[in-house]
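Dear colleagues,

For the upcoming journal club I promised to circulate an example of a predicted protein-ligand complex. I picked one with flavin-adenine dinucleotide because it came up in last month's discussion. The inputs are reproduced below in full, followed by the predicted structure.
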Amino acid sequence: MSDRVQAPLGARDCEVTDRRATGGYVIVSALDAEGPDPKPGQFYMLSADGWGTHGGRPFLPRAFSVADAERADRGVRLDFLIDAVGPGTSVLAGLERGARLRVTGPLGVPFSPPRELNPDAAGAILVGGGVGIAPLAMLRRELARRAFPTRTLLGFRDREHSGGLELFRCQEVGLASEDGHAGHQGYVTDLLAVALKGPDAHTAAVYACGPPGMLEAVRALCAERGAPVELALETPMACGYGACFGCAVPLADGGYMRLCVEGPVVRGDRIATAIVEGAGHR
Ligand SMILES: Cc1cc2nc3c(=O)[nH]c(=O)nc-3n(C[C@H](O)[C@H](O)[C@H](O)COP(=O)(O)OP(=O)(O)OC[C@H]3O[C@@H](n4cnc5c(N)ncnc54)[C@H](O)[C@@H]3O)c2cc1C
Ligand code: FES
């Protein structure tokens, strides 16, 4: 899983094959006839017809994690989980079957295999928040294929900001919600704190994606308990392939990394904080 899959040069047109609402989110599926199979944690820069129609916005493509990818007869089916928060995500969430989706990718570094992240790993713990659950859905299925023991913990703000559970194709999911509409009332990090009690922390490989506040809580908890963790971060991305430096994230030992080429998946101990300037999701 750790080696990135390189994107072919340039953008490709894909056909939207399905669109379905899931809670407050939308899953858009498209057939990528020419692209390679992505790995969990990688992302695509997306745009579509209708780009630039909201008073000229959005101007640039937007970044999206791949939530599922499955080889089909005529290419690879890509699923994206979308939270419509602005002009780009609203256009993408409204795409119907037969529409054109423009993709560049797969981009970025994927999640590492558990024993690469923690040589003593006996199990993986996936911690997702909000629409950030997307890359973990694909990771969970990859780990299930390898029969690696995995626990999934997901948290949502409220009913409106939740959805996509079916992407995990798994009944055993620990749920938390801030408004109490599903599972434990509180934060998903409350569930993680229980899972990392005692010696279990040293044999865990933790993977997380979600809003910056949640990721920072996961990073700090894992550091305190000695559990190796990889975080999939979010920053505003203008190009997605290393040219603009718009996605720079400060490193723990000084300097910066470009999140689009050295991330979006980053080891928790490489960064001082997961609170990233300009990340939209709260
Ligand atoms: C690597 C990576 C992977 C990503 N994966 C996904 C994904 O799988 N699904 C997904 O939906 N998004 C994902 N995002 C986030 C997505 O790219 C951004 O939210 C994008 O900028 C939205 O574009 P827009 O044109 O709709 O809104 P923008 O014009 O970019 O933003 C409009 C306004 O909305 C604000 N905003 C952004 N998010 C929220 C929010 N949750 N609540 C309230 N206000 C908000 C912004 O700060 C801004 O003020 C990912 C980002 C990165 C970097
Ligand atoms: S988004 Fe342009 S360098 Fe990362």
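Two points we might discuss: The CA atoms of residues 247 and 259 lie 6 Å apart. The helical segments are 87-93, 114-117, 134-145, 188-195, 212-225, 259-262.

See you all on Thursday,
B. R.
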